[in-house]
User: What shape does this take?
Amino acid sequence: MKVEASFLRSAASAGDLPRDGLAAIALVGRSNVGKSSLINALVRQRLARTSGAPGKTRLANVYRVARGQSPAMYVIDLPGFGYARGGNAGFDEIAQAVLGREEQDGPATAAILLVDSRHPGLARDTEAWRWLQTAVERRAVVATKIDKLTRGERIRAMGQLESVFEHPVLPVSAVTGEGLDELWKLIDNLNRPRPNSSSPSRLRRPPPPSRAAAAAAATALEKKTRPPRRRKR
Assistant: This one.
């Protein structure tokens, strides 16, 4: 299926975001999770620039994408969190702007959390998912770099991911193309109009994952998975 895609602009604030009524989907993830590579694989061209320095990008890159007969939409690549230089201040501001688009600017922005399949259950990922659950109505989890795992590792990783997030997780690979057709179907479903849905503008939007919150999540996860102590006789 033919895909037409172009880079629109880099957005630093709400005023830089498009307001022409098209649907939008935001990609959320740590700085080294492979967002740019996945975008390039989806649109079948080298459109998004990849960086060897995690956390370098401080802006949200906006791409206009049209696939087949489907209406055009925007893919918004949010700055990566976790390794962002100078803290999460820049990420917080632009993330709030993207996920809190006003209704007159178009349908509510959906979000996909990208996680590295090789590292299931990282504290920052689980905290980001909890944040998205309160920030957006339409959301999903996608596991990248699945080609890096052996069959056994893949089975274990996917089981852990779905257990941690308590939500279906789609495995994909920007290298082999595995899961890309399913990802397009997921995107179409997230952008499909739904009658009588809650207005995203009324949803609570806490700040994106902080170091303190991530540490607390890590402690909770460790306690949850720690085996019970044996009683001494």
